[in-house]
Design a protein that fits this description.
The structure holds two protein chains of two kinds. By secondary structure, chain A is mainly beta. Chain A is built from no helices and twelve strands. In chain B, a hairpin with a 2-residue loop joins strand 5 and strand 6. Chain B is globular and about 40 Å long. In chain B, 0% of the residues lie in helices and 52% in strands. In chain B, strands 2, 4, 5, 6, 9, 10 and 11 form a seven-stranded mixed sheet that branches. A four-stranded antiparallel sheet of chain B has the order 1-3-8-7, with no helix packed on it. The chains are: A mainly beta, B mainly beta. Chains A and B meet through strand 5 and strand 6 of A and strand 5, strand 9 and strand 10 of B.
């Protein structure tokens, strides 16, 4: 069965420091991988996706993610965190075959302190 | 461009009442999804449609829940009768499927949700 794991419920980082939000997945084949962000009282917003090719994907607001096939991971990163990055982050996977169903992780809450 | 529009934003009603949540997807999108978000269970996919046809409703919790998509620009999620455990934030999302192998990699666009409280 497909699954997504975000091992950390919460990540705390100081403003200006690099941040990493972890994601591992279990899907047969080569899935599409996504990161979304959710701010309070808002819907999820798309940040970036991995389709194929370069393992480092760049997305919105200075975020990037590193795909590692051998470790089945897709960690979200940012070189320098901002207080405004504080939000809930979701990793998601979708099989390339078998429909449009997307599996979301449980979410990781990021706190960036000034 | 207008995003996914959901109404109402908030709904408070008493147990046993019928609840109808509404969604207008982004024009041109051919996939529509309904999700439920709670602290305990996270984000759950309830049902999704392609070209107005339900494709997978395996996430619909009970017969009390039903969803329809009468046309490409409108969908409803109905709960009848409602129960306190249905209290959650319900999200609608839409996506463009496209042709061939490119469609499956398109992201979903979410509305801002309906916060439902059943007393």
């Amino acid at each position: 069965a497909q699954s997504v794991a975000q091992p950390e419920d919460q990540v705390n980082v100081a403003e200006g420091n690099p941040l990493t939000v972890k994601c591992t997945y279990s899907v047969s084949g080569n899935p599409y991988l996504f990161w979304y962000v959710q701010y309070p009282n808002r819907g999820l917003q798309f940040l970036l996706k991995y389709i194929t090719g370069d393992n480092l994907v760049k997305g919105s607001y200075g975020f990037e993610a590193e795909f590692n096939k051998s470790q089945t991971s897709f960690h979200l990163k940012k070189p320098s965190a901002l207080v405004s990055d504080s939000a809930l982050y979701f990793c998601a996977v979708r099989d390339r075959v078998g429909g449009f169903k997307t599996i979301f992780g449980a979410g990781t809450r990021l706190f960036v302190k000034a | 461009d207008a995003g996914v529009i959901q109404s109402p934003r908030h709904e408070v009603t008493e147990m046993g009442q019928e609840v109808t949540l509404r969604c207008k997807p982004i024009s041109g999108h051919d996939y529509l999804f309904w999700y439920r978000q709670t602290m305990m269970r996270g984000l759950e996919l309830l049902i999704y449609f392609n070209n107005n046809v339900p494709i997978d409703d395996s996430g619909m919790p009970e017969d009390r829940f039903s969803a329809k998509m009468p046309n490409a620009s409108f969908s409803t999620l109905k709960i009848q009768p409602s129960e306190p455990r249905d209290s959650a934030v319900y999200f609608c999302a839409s996506s463009f499927g496209g042709q061939g192998t490119s469609g499956g990699n398109q992201p979903q666009h979410f509305g801002d949700g309906t916060r439902l409280s059943i007393l």
